[in-house]
Amino acid sequence: MTERFSPAGQAREKEQIMKLEKIPGGYALYKEKTIIGTCRARPAEQGADITALTIVPEWRRKGYGSYLLKEVLRSLGGYDKESATVFTAPLPADAGELAFWAKFGFAAEGSGLCRRRTPDLTAVKLVQDFLAARLADPRLCIDATCGNGGDTAFLCRLVGEEGRVLGFDIQPEAIASTRQNLARKGLAAELHCDSHANLLQYVQPGTVDAVMFNFGWLPGADHGVFSHAQSSIPALEAALEALRPGGVLSAILYSGKVIGSDEKTEILQWMRSRPLKQCTALVCDFANWADTAPLPCFLLKK
């Protein structure tokens, strides 16, 4: 039988019949039930030391070496956008092999190859770093838009065992996802399937260290369900009232083809109209990103 592949079809075919399996000292690449390649790797704190990568001679020059290395890097966190990673490998003997490793970000360094990756700065990471640096010994924090619980977990770690974290989301699936996320990480928070506009029913005004908002839609869920300014602005007003002097409100705003720009525009207008005696408003624009990129904002309560 004659095999015919388009580049995209060939990639799909590989994914369907290939399997990466962990073995002592590294990984094996199976084509159906036959090992056609191996990668020897010693995991390190931020990546791994790849000591050898071999493809069985009859399967070379067919893209399987690239597939194997990519899957090993993926398995060891090499494509994690939020983590700094360092991978090393032996220096190849010829220019062809050096070009192969270069496709995956490896470059000559000292007596070997090294692949260093600095995590991308995301809107979420910027907000979390700002709060961690700004707040000294926080004890009461709110995640006003739980989603899948990423910010909730961050706040739980920020306040420590003596602190208190409340999480709100109007979607039951978001509360369930957050609860599972926290349980996996050994963390706990008070989760409420309620509108964030009602947060003052759960805390006293002037007592909260930080309130986080991440607007838009629930990641992994129906993108047709997303936040709107009509409910978001009352929630922001309630959050600002809940904050203590020196507390921080953070909000990541979104726009795009699905959700439009109405919520983003109206919230920005609301923030810019806050009296200076009440708070300082910061809008952190990523100047060389697309206009629809997530927009981190902060209100610093006075």
Automatic annotation (TrEMBL):
Mention any Pfam family matching this sequence: rRNA_methylase
**What's a Gene Ontology MF term here?**
acyltransferase activity
Recorded hits in PROSITE patterns, A to Z, give: GNAT
> What's the Enzyme Commission number for this chain?
2.3.1.-
Q: What class of enzyme is it?
A: transferase
| Gene3D superfamilies listed in its UniProt record | 3.40.630.30, Vaccinia Virus protein VP39 (3.40.50.150)
Arranged from A to Z, the UniProt key words for this protein are:
Acyltransferase, Transferase
Top-level taxonomic group: Bacteria
TM stretches of this protein: none
Residue ranges of every copy of the N-acetyltransferase domain listed in the record: 1-131
Protein name, entry field = GNAT family N-acetyltransferase
- What is this organism's lineage? Bacteria, Bacillati, Bacillota, Clostridia, Eubacteriales
